[in-house]
Amino acid sequence: MFDVDGTLIRTGGAGVKAFARAFESEFGEPRGTEMVKFGGRTDLSLARELFLLRHIEPSPGNFQRFFQAYLVWLEKLMRECVGAVCAGVPEFYRALETRDQPPLIGLLTGNIRRGAEIKLERFQLWKQFQFGGFGDDHEERPQIAAIARQRGGQRLGRELRAGEILVIGDTPLDIHCARSIGAKVLAVATGSFSVPQLREHQPDWAVEDLSKFSPDGF
After folding, report:
1. Angle, CA of 64, 67 and 70, to the nearest 5°
2. Taking the alpha carbons of 137, 143, 147, 148 in that order, is the dihedral positive or negative?
3. Which pLDDT band holds residue 206 (cuts at 50, 70, 90)?
4. Is-above-0.85 flag for pTM?
5. Number of neighbouring beta carbons within 10 Å of residue 88
6. Above 70 in pLDDT, residue 147?
7. Distance CA 119, CA 51 (A)
8. What span, in angstroms and rounded, lies between the C-alpha atoms of 199 and 25?
């Protein structure tokens, strides 16, 4: 299961910018996102933090209002963004897909589902993933991981054992999220954390990018 931002793709900060513009357009707050750390977080937890910082009630209505605006801004900014697929991703995916027994390949992300779709569609990647756990499934990453594990098991028609699951991500929060379901972890330094920083959180593997790791290694 792959994380999205910083693991599969770079968007030039389109998601953060969409958060900021939605917050300003809907609630008249031009500042706030610069005080929030986005890496590895869920969209719901980020929106809640912004609401609390600006003394806005984190009500269901305000969440709905915010995310409707966010998706409009995200679609616009993704059309304009100068982004890229992270190094090694296409080759790594093909190597998984062409194995004698290809694994079920999914997503594990804090992005709400439609947000992940918008981002990945920009690089023709969305349809490559068969299932996923998303930020609108739950506010906490470990719960999203548990949901993704359950969905993967449903696709395979049996319960997944922890050791059968590999999570690929670029932040310490991705590592901790994977460990919450007992999964193996491949950490990649294609986001804002270096290999030494990632290794401090004890993933099973840590590499500069996916071109430096063969799927035969696990």
Report:
1. 155
2. positive
3. very high
4. yes
5. 18
6. yes
7. 24
8. 40
- C-alpha distances (whole Å) from 5 to each of 102, 135, 146, 169 are 24, 13, 20, 9
Name the residue range of residue 150's domain: 83-217
My answer on whether 45 and 116 are in the same domain is no
Q: Where are the alpha helices (DSSP H) in 2-133?
A: 14-27, 43-53, 60-80, 89-97, 113-121
Look up residue 14 and give its amino acid.
A
Judgement on whether residues 131 and 186 belong to the same structural domain of the protein: yes
Say yes or no: 89 and 139 in one domain: yes
Q: CATH number for the domain including 142?
A: 3.40.50.1000
131 and 213 part of one domain: yes
| Contacts made by residues 158-161, CB under 8 angstroms, sequence distance 24+ | none
Q: What is the residue type of 18? A: A
CA distance 207 to 64: 38
Buried b (16+ CB within 10 A) or exposed e, 46-66: bbbbbbeeeebeeeeebbeeb
Q: How many domains does the chain have?
A: 2
C-alpha distances (whole Å) from 49 to each of 53, 54, 69 are 6, 9, 17
Residue appearing with tokens 């900014």: 77
Phi-psi region at 108: left, alpha or beta (left = phi > 0; alpha = psi -120 to 50):
beta
Q: Give tens-digit pLDDT for 36-67.
A: 888 889 999 999 999 998 899 999 999 999 99
Instruction: For residues 180 and 123, state if they share a domain.
Output: yes
